[in-house]
Amino acid sequence: MSGRCFFGVNGLDQIIPEGMEYGTQILVSGDTGIGKTVLAGQFLLEGLLCGDTCIYVACDESPSVMRRHLRDYKVGVQAYENAGRLILVDAYEEGESKEKYFIANQYSLEKYAVMERLLLQRFPGRRLRLVVDSLSTLLIPFTQEEILEFHRNRLKYLRKNGVLTMDIMVDGVLDQRLMTIAGHLYNVTVRMKFGGSEGRPDRMIQVGKVKSGKFDAVPRRFGISPVFGIIIYAADMEV
Ligand SMILES: Nc1ncnc2c1ncn2[C@@H]1O[C@H](COP(=O)(O)OP(=O)(O)OP(=O)(O)O)[C@@H](O)[C@H]1O
Ligand SMILES: [Mg+2]
């Protein structure tokens, strides 16, 4: 697939001025409550606006939370869902899901991989943007070997098929060593962390590892607005 793609976040996209290729795999990792799901929402919005078919796998909360986020951004969610351009997958509900798309029993990685592939194969010839929020939740019950095996095969498949992928991982859920090894399998990494002092915490975001591309690895401070989502502050801006 040709063309370049972006996060859809002002300030973050300027860090990678040339954008990314379809088939790029992005690892977003960070503290809980830092804004990973907010970033995912903007990434999906960007996808909808540029014509991608967007798939969001909700593992940590019901897909309706993302529906609400997107509505806050004035996205006509229902119309996109009806048109098959926005696919919200319920991988959260353990019992019966009311959603059109769901992945029941996500306690088998193999089964998850098969379900994900089948879903992607429903949209041949389309530019696909996939977000799994959060992948770390799916991986919890498995051994390091199982996780790495799953990871390698899955990412290889996604790359080969040109799927722009954003995998979200919550810090502290998986073993740090495993996170480091898994992190090497991605083309782009985005770290989101709380910094600053206790009385005055800052949100920080940092891009790493853009293969063969120019990018700026300096950590940036950011805030979250209900209207615009993530706002990256200028490097010299006092907040
Ligand atoms: N639409 C929104 N507008 C403004 N603030 C929001 C919005 N959605 C979430 N927030 C706030 O942004 C912060 C980050 O939320 P978010 O859900 O993205 O965190 P997260 O990194 O996904 O956390 P977790 O690991 O628990 O899933 C929270 O403090 C939340 O209250
Ligand atoms: Mg989240």
Task: Write the SSE topology.
Elements: E1 4-5, E2 20-21, E3 25-30, H1 36-49, E4 53-58, H2 63-72, H3 77-82, E5 86-90, E6 101-102, H4 109-121, E7 128-133, H5 135-139, H6 144-160, E8 164-170, H7 176-183, E9 188-196, E10 201-208, E11 220-225, E12 229-232
Parallel strand pairs: 3-8, 3-9, 4-5, 4-7, 5-6, 7-8
Antiparallel strand pairs: 1-2, 9-10, 10-11, 11-12
The structure holds adenosine-5'-triphosphate (ATP) and magnesium ion.
Magnesium ion is lined by residues 36-37, 60, 133.
Q: Which properties best describe this structure?
A:
239 residues; alpha/beta; Rossmann fold; 10-stranded mixed beta sheet; two-stranded antiparallel ribbon; 7 helices; 12 strands; binds adenosine-5'-triphosphate; binds magnesium ion
Write up what this structure looks like:
With 239 residues, the protein is an alpha/beta fold. It has one domain (4-161, 175-205): Rossmann fold. It is 31% helix and 26% strand. It contains seven helices and twelve strands. The strands form two sheets. A ten-stranded mixed β-sheet has the order 6-5-4-7-8-3-9-10-11-12. The longest helix has 17 residues, at 144-160. The model has no long low-confidence stretch (mean pLDDT 92). The site of adenosine-5'-triphosphate has 13 residues, from helix 1 and helix 2.
